[in-house]
């Protein structure tokens, strides 16, 4: 039943729901989709935005070189951890804990080491890909819980829009194989249908899994009931740190060591380090790595952790560079060695995972792409681009479908004009702002105080200007100018990288630095996509020009001055002339 009381069928009611659930928060959903798609390359973006690391090229001795550097930098540390270079990281990320250090991240010291020399590097301050990743699900400049609630509500509407869209378009799958160019509203509907169906499984999975990741915030009542409001006990048990008793309350949520968890290992290592012992020479790590490579020929060694280094109790834990199961969220296998003799030890068995937790792990891992090898990561990225395009064409289609109403009125209603402006600023403007974010990373002085914040301020400043720009320009011109600017900025990023101290694209490919090369290739792909949009806008504008000059079109200037609506307006004007 409609608001005015007139009866309607299921498909008609779903069409209304699909339209408004997609439009009300469509611009926010577009931004979430856009930044989420880029987040599949979060590590690569961060690596690219630290050009001081681009000359770090690993070799067979990188692991031993890193441990030697730790011996010189932190000889009294209770633990050393080295994250080794891989296809998503060029340098060694090292961390260690001194005796008596505070629990958790507060007591962990970090450094970045050159994989080829072992020297400590000083990369510039930047949030890198983490900014785009965080913006994707908690926005910015507001309390995190508010941002997550807003994104969670928008994600719910996205799921409603997907389901209602499938119900509304009864010929959606047959229409997927049909595209009618230069047909105005029909062309936009074909494009929207095609992008929706092409990656429909991806859209459903990524939307539903996003809600699962926010489930504990959106639906907290089960946890609050089972754990008497002590959510910290729930999360502690979820991580396998201890077996909390339901109803234990806050008495179980203290800050002391947790049996079986990281805090327990840190506390034990600190206690052992406080016992006076003579310094003992460590066994070379090379044979340990070779033994691990025989078991992990695909992923190799991802990280090395040394507990109680320089003591007779020293152990070396090697962790695989990737997991093979979504049930444990892609957790890697481990091998344990005696740090003095180099002999293998029995590694502790991983805790069993309950089927509810396993189900949650599978769904959340699909969203985060933890399982993705390079090729799969590119497929996820392309699916994200298709989803982003679906959201964009849906918002443009809303304007195009209302062209007949505007032609009858002979003017553009303020609400329609507002949607036009927001479409340009939210879609094309976000591309310009993101490209500018990368440019600010290289143009701001490397030693600028708070430079990571200035990069982000530059991002939002440019985005705000892109929202103002379509107010001052004709609709079509605003689209063309912003898309052209985005294409140019994105295409020049590989050149900017080489000129500002980073690795040139041929160099990064030759040295197998795929994190850097992958970023440059991703930017070139996005530049080509934006360039195609500019070409299409120019071509469709030329097609519309002859009809727009006819008397009927001149009598209704509002219909031909609607930017992206011009092709459809030209067709309508020509039909009137034939009548």
Write down the Rg. 28 Å
User: Order of strands side by side in the largest beta sheet?
Assistant: 4-3-2-1-5-6-7-8
Distance between the termini: 38 Å
Mean pLDDT, as a whole number? 81
- Give the overall form: globular
Number of helices: 26
Helical coverage, percent range? 55-70%
Classification by helices and strands: alpha+beta
The main sheet comes to: 8 strands, antiparallel
How many beta strands in the DSSP annotation? 8
Unreliable stretches (pLDDT < 50, length at least 5) are 242-265, 544-579
Task: Estimate what percentage of residues fall within beta strands.
Answer: 5-15%
Descriptive account of the structure:
- With 579 residues, the chain is of the alpha+beta class.
- An 8-stranded antiparallel sheet has the order 4-3-2-1-5-6-7-8, sandwiched between helices.
- A hairpin with an 8-residue loop joins strand 1 and strand 2.
- Helix 8 runs antiparallel to helix 16 and helix 23 runs parallel beside helix 26.
- The longest helix is centred in the C-terminal third of the chain and has 35 residues.
- It is globular and about 90 Å long.
Secondary-structure map:
Blueprint: H1 10-24, H2 26-39, H3 42-48, H4 62-73, E1 79-83, E2 92-97, E3 108-113, E4 120-121, H5 129-138, H6 144-168, H7 172-175, H8 185-198, H9 200-213, H10 215-218, H11 221-226, H12 231-238, H13 262-273, H14 286-295, E5 301-307, E6 315-320, E7 334-338, E8 344-345, H15 355-368, H16 374-401, H17 403-409, H18 414-443, H19 451-472, H20 475-491, H21 493-499, H22 505-510, H23 514-548, H24 551-555, H25 557-560, H26 566-578
Antiparallel strand pairs: 1-2, 1-5, 2-3, 3-4, 5-6, 6-7, 7-8
Helix pairs in contact: 1-6, 2-5, 2-6, 2-16, 2-18, 3-5, 3-23, 6-9, 8-16, 9-15, 16-18, 18-19, 18-20, 19-20, 20-23, 23-26
């Amino acid at each position: 039943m409609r608001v005015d009381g007139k009866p309607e069928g299921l498909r008609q009611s779903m069409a209304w729901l699909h339209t408004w659930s997609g439009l009300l928060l469509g611009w926010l959903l577009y931004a979430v989709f856009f930044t989420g798609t880029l987040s599949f390359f979060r590590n690569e973006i961060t690596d690219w935005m630290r050009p001081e690391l681009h000359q770090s090229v690993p070799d067979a001795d990188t692991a031993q070189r890193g441990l030697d550097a730790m011996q010189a930098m932190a000889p009294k540390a209770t633990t050393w951890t080295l994250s080794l270079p891989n296809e998503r990281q060029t340098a060694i990320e090292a961390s260690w804990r001194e005796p008596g250090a505070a629990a958790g991240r507060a007591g962990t010291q970090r450094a970045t080491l050159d994989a080829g020399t072992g020297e400590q590097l000083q990369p510039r301050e930047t949030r890198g890909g983490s900014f785009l990743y965080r913006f994707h699900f908690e926005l910015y400049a507001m309390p995190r819980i508010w941002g997550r609630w807003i994104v969670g509500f928008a994600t719910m509407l996205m799921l409603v829009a997907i389901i209602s869209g499938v119900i509304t378009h009864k010929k959606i799958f047959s229409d997927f194989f049909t595209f009618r160019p230069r047909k105005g509203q029909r062309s936009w509907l074909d494009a929207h249908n095609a992008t929706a169906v092409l990656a429909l499984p991806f859209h459903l999975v990524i939307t539903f899994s996003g809600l699962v990741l926010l489930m504990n915030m959106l639906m907290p009542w089960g946890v609050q009931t089972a754990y008497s409001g002590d959510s910290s006990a729930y999360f502690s048990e979820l991580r396998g740190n201890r077996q909390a008793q339901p109803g234990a309350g806050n008495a179980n949520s203290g800050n002391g060591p947790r049996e079986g968890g990281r805090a327990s290992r840190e506390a034990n290592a600190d206690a052992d380090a406080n016992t006076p012992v003579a310094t003992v020479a460590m066994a070379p790590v090379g044979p340990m790595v070779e033994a691990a490579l025989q078991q992990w020929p695909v992923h190799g060694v991802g990280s090395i952790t040394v507990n109680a280094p320089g003591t007779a109790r020293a152990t070396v834990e090697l962790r695989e560079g990737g997991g093979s199961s979504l049930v444990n969220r892609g957790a890697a296998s481990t091998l344990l060695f005696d740090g003095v003799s180099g002999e293998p030890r029995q590694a502790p068995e991983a805790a069993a995972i309950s089927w509810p937790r396993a189900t949650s792990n599978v769904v959340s891992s699909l969203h985060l792409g933890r399982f993705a090898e390079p090729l799969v990561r590119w497929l996820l990225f392309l699916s994200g681009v298709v989803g982003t395009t679906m959201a964009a064409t849906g918002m443009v289609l809303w304007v195009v479908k209302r062209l007949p109403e505007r032609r009858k009125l002979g003017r553009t209603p303020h609400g329609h004009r507002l949607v036009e402006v927001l479409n340009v600023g939210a879609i094309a403007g976000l591309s310009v702002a993101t490209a500018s974010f990368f440019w600010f990373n290289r143009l701001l002085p490397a030693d600028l105080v708070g430079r990571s914040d200035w990069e982000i301020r530059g991002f939002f400043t440019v985005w705000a200007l892109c929202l103002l720009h379509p107010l001052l320009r004709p609709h079509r011109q605003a689209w063309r100018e912003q898309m052209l600017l985005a294409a140019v900025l994105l295409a020049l990023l590989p050149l900017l990288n080489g000129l500002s101290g980073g690795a040139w694209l041929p160099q990064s490919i030759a040295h197998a630095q795929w994190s850097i090369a992958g970023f440059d290739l991703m930017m070139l792909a996005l530049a080509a996509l934006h360039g195609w949009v500019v070409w299409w806008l120019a071509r469709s504008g030329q097609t519309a020009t002859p009809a727009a000059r006819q008397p009927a079109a001149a009598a209704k200037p509002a219909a031909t001055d609607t930017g992206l609506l011009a092709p459809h307006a030209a067709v309508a004007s020509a039909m009137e002339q034939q009548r």
